[in-house]
Please model this.
Amino acid sequence: MARRQQHWRMRGVMAGVGVVCCLGLGVAGCARSDAVPQGAPAGDPVEVLRGAAEALVEAGSSKARTSLEMATGGTRVTIRGQGVYDYRKRLGRLKVLLPQDPAGATVRRPITELLAPGALFMKNRGAGVPPDKWVRVDTGTLSDGNLVTGGATDPFAAAEVLRGTRAAKFVGRTELAGTKVRHYRGTADLEAASRAASEANRGPLGAAAKGFATARVPFDVYLDDEGRIRKVRHRFSFVNGRQDDPVGVASTTLLYDFGAPADVRLPEGEDIYAGRIAAE
Model:
């Protein structure tokens, strides 16, 4: 009975994460823990982080790994993704790997996601969607602004959350995947981020500010010497409809190979599924 109750609690959390699909991703590449903090670099940490998104635009593109992690009732769910992103066109492509079902019996096919201004496209969505069709979701209608729903936080949206940085401190210098980086820790406000964000992310971040349990987002971020985000980890909090206590979600985005080709083509109208999507 206890195991069955835990199973249904987990299904409730998965249902509450997103309107369309409930994912969660885990990212590889952790910073070394033996780093010794040194003197803070020139510049106020708050202002440095508020401008971090612009450094990505200057870089043009990169490869990305993303992660969403949830834990409830002693059960942890992690979904991983990997792909590329064009920061100038605001277009990305990720292959999202879903975990097994709670019973551990079903291995699910990866979902291909295309990230675009105001929209999320998913292929291999399942639940009655033809395998050659895409599902399109208007991210402006999602209560989390697609920071959680798709199982992967849009890399540029993750960077633009930092535009709402309210408090931050320089933790120290360290090394991440062979690259020297500066580690910062702080808190961002989604309402402030939405006001300062690019037009494409203004609406989604504003929706997240209203939809999450709190607009306050703690984060850790690692910048290279050119000010580009190499790794950022946000901690979001939302209220699941089946329980009163907020559910914590950790979203991690790892960026590397800046300048890598990121040719992302959005599906044509006839390739988008127009039917009803069954709940999973």
